[in-house]
Design brief:
The protein is mainly alpha-helical and 121 residues long. Helix content is 39%, strand content 0%. It contains 6 helices and no strands.
Amino acid sequence: MLRDFGVKDVRVHEVISLDHDMLASLPQPVYGLIFLFKWRAEDPDKQEPSCPEGIWFANQTVKDACASVALLNIVNNVPELKLGEHLQHFKDFTADFTPPLRGDAIGNFEFVKSIHNSFAR
């Protein structure tokens, strides 16, 4: 999915344990970990209204978008990554958005939607 998004020089590895040996075996650097939980529609008032300066974070506001949101929340916070033209434009465009608005923007971003949907089962 990241390759299709245009992100360069990043790989994803499945981790089945957080023990020291497992984490030590991962190629470096590690930019983030994704923890999977069942998605539940939340009260919009319970979503993160903001995030610290310099952090790009989107709430998941669209059902079944957890992988896309999680990956975007990681790669958009690693300055040295080459995001590709579309994602860089999206990151710049949403820089002043709140996390819930970024989540809505992901759901409306055709570039991400089409790639995300190509991985749907």
